[in-house]
Specification:
Layout: H1 5-15, E1 28-32, E2 46-50, E3 55-56, E4 62-63, E5 67-75, H2 79-89, H3 94-103, H4 109-126, E6 134-143, E7 147-152, E8 158-163, E9 166-174
Antiparallel strand pairs: 1-2, 3-4, 5-9, 6-9, 7-8
């Protein structure tokens, strides 16, 4: 029998009701992962992650005050090819990631470079942060929709062609705060 997350927390609070230790349930954020309705084997999960940065409001949501992001959607490239580039800049400073992206010989560097520029511009213009103290805190690549075409072959056959797309998200964080 699997326990749901709120039921598990209620059992935990009943367990610690008489003791000195109380569970910290107000500092947990529930993150639900989305699954496509046609996928059969990926269940919808809820995972609890502790909050490490930002300000927690009354509703338990996190407002991050030192992060700026840029998202590129429907980029005509395979997600695996874009991940190869994004993995190189994750966790690095703004200037260092610019140098890496300008010198790498991959086609995925151009849209990722534009997104890093855009995220830094969002941080400086909208939030007033210094570009010299920014780091790439989170960078992720997700698969987008796939356009499917057919290529004619000999003897009346047809082979499929899949034109893959991806969504890239770059989040910059200020290290001076």
């Amino acid at each position: 029998m699997a326990l749901t997350l709120p039921h598990a927390f209620s059992r935990l609070s009943l367990f610690h009701q008489n003791s000195q230790i109380t569970p910290i349930t107000h500092s947990l954020r529930l993150k639900t992962t989305w699954r496509h309705p046609n996928t059969r084997y990926a269940p919808l999960l809820a995972t609890a992650q502790p909050l490490t940065e930002g300000v927690v409001t009354k509703k338990g949501k996190q407002e991050s005050y030192a992060e700026a992001q840029a998202t590129g959607r429907y980029i005509p490239m395979s997600a695996n090819k874009a991940r190869r580039v994004v993995d190189q800049i994750r966790g690095r400073s703004y200037e260092e990631s610019l140098m890496i992206l300008e010198l790498m010989p991959y086609r995925a560097c151009d849209p990722v470079l534009k997104l890093v520029y855009s995220a830094a511009a969002n941080a400086s213009k909208n939030m007033g942060l210094n570009e010299a103290s920014l780091i790439v805190s989170r960078a992720e690549v997700n698969e987008g929709p796939t356009r499917k075409k057919v290529r004619p072959q000999a003897r009346g056959r047809a082979h499929p062609i899949r034109r893959r797309t991806c969504h890239i998200t770059v989040v910059m964080k200020d290290t001076s705060l």
